[in-house]
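Problem 12. The chain below contains 237 residues. Write out its predicted structure in token notation.
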Amino acid sequence: MGSAVWVRQVIDGDPAFEIDSREIPADWPYGTIALGATEPGKVPANVDHAPAAGVSDDGSGGVGKIVYDLNPSLVDWAYGLTKQTPLADSPELKASRARFNKDPIAQQPPKVVEGDSLGTDHFWHGAILNRWAEDWVRLYTRGKGSLEIADCEDQGMVLAIDKLDQLGRLKKSRLLILRTASNFTVPPPGTSPVKSLFENLASSPGYLPSLEANYQVGSLVTTELLKHWDQYENKTP
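Solution.
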């Protein structure tokens, strides 16, 4: 919690079939299935050229675009500019991280990283759906991506940016996305998903630090762009 992530790829987690986990076959790890597939852990063979939602002929409903790649050079530039930024830590954050005593990565203090974002309006929590999220990112990126952070907005924003780029209103190659982590997507050992989810919603110790981290890191990039706009106006960093 409290870390900042410069997003490399946005993966849309919304277009899916779903069967309640109490009714799925015994060998299924979860009940969320990609449109065009018939079981978890698989995506359609034509995933890179799938029809827009609602116009497919095979009953899948179409999936449209799932993975949106951001300009890697621009993301690397922003990361290089900010990666040494010290982010606030606190006794509350340390205590929250310490509960994840079997996960050394979860115990690390806040820092700036690069990674992939899963955007979905489906606010999920717990180890089972976290496995779905990790699989979803890995499968749709052909094994090149891995889940770094989850959110509820990026999938809609990048779709809008993509359409505006097609209309010539802006350049999607200049899009940067900075996410900051306010809570974990799985409970610590010994805590139920229900208790973990609703405790986090009520009083996550990472919420205010994540807002501060967003300003700390993001302001470095915006200040650099404004200070040298004569250089960047017609040339992407």
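Discussion. The radius of gyration is 19 Å. Students who got a different answer should revisit the alignment rule from Section 12.3.
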